[in-house]
Amino acid sequence: MLDTYFFIPGDKQKYLDKIDVVKSDYIVIDLEDAVALKNKNEALELVLGLSLQPNCFVRIPFFENCYSNEQVAKLIQHFEGRIAVPKLSEKAEITQIKNLVPEIDLNMIILVENPLCIINLVEIMKSFSSQIHGIGFGTHDFCSITGMKHTSENLDNYKRQLLLYAKAFNVNYIDGVDLDLKDFTQFKKECVFAFEMGASGKFLIHPKQIEKLREVAYLSDAELDELHSVYEIIKDIPDNMIEVYTIGGKVYEKPHIMRIKKVMRKIQEFSKN
Question: Is 59 annotated as ligand-binding?
Fold first, then answer.
């Protein structure tokens, strides 16, 4: 029940040709880590030649000096402001990006990949949350920079912190990539943890992960039965008329009802796909 954010390398024509058939909620075309330096210009031309849907973002290596300001501006314009910003550290860097295309309202995914970004994130959100689609946690870069072992025990508290910031400013929290494409045990655990703490989506790098994400059992059979039975009773109640209800011996207040409606909408979307 998490939204999918699927990375596609910007220099691979065969993958770019399949964008329209990938069953992902969002596409992130990658011009950063997935593209070797020698292929950056080729990838730029390929990406600028694409016809894009409104669910497509582009990850641009803003701070690596591999593209000129003019090239970066063309990319932002082509994607109508839908950009993923990697390696961000401070608010001034977003201001620099905005100054390249002052006429465009940005729609950003902020990738938190270093400690300084976490420290500065509240300040960033106060200034730019209206132009931020979501916060994504780049756990592998974060662990590389900090020297931290990449385990859930080490990372889960940071995930909770970032989700709290996201909720405070009404933007999405997107869980980071899992790199194991053979054993999906940890991947599924990450999906359940992300869902249970209130995340909106997860970054994916392989079509198998899209399939596996749809297999994840986010709720037990008993929880699903309860969800369906309560939903059938409250589904037609307008949000502004929700009161307190006792159903099956349990009390449900407005926050519970709103979450039930939200989860059921996602279940219904999954069943259609």
Answer: yes
